[in-house]
Sequence to fold (149 residues):
Amino acid sequence: MNPSEQNPAPDITKTYTNGEITVVWKPNTCIHSKVCWTNLIEVFNPKKRPWVNMDGASTQRIANQVDRCPSKALSYFRNEDPLQPEAIQTESLVEPLPNGPLLVYGNLRVKDAQGHEIQKNNVTAFCRCGNSSNKPYCDGSHLKVGFVG
Fold:
């Protein structure tokens, strides 16, 4: 048994705000599609620390870009609304991304090999290539290995 199977990766959440909205980033959910920084490098720049600069664009441009995140590792909520982003309330939907992960939309309880259960909401990206170091979740390894499927 490898160490990652003994101690599941912590479910890390990071937040960034400009006063109007707060962007929420869940790195363990990220599939490294590059959509965020390819289209809005002024805000999302993986070469800088912190990698999210909330002063780099207008609130609306940031919100529009976050809405494009295919894994929903990035989400946001408006600061005047104290409620967190709404969880999907409809039935689940499963979508395999070409040459990428399996996206499952909906509210899920995921049980790992040791029996630990984790609640996942909105969108969860599962590994299809078999090379993720964060199984059963996608970590973007499909890009490195040239997964086709």
Residues 1-8, 85-89 have pLDDT under 50 and may be disordered. The first strand starts at residue 14 and ends at 17.
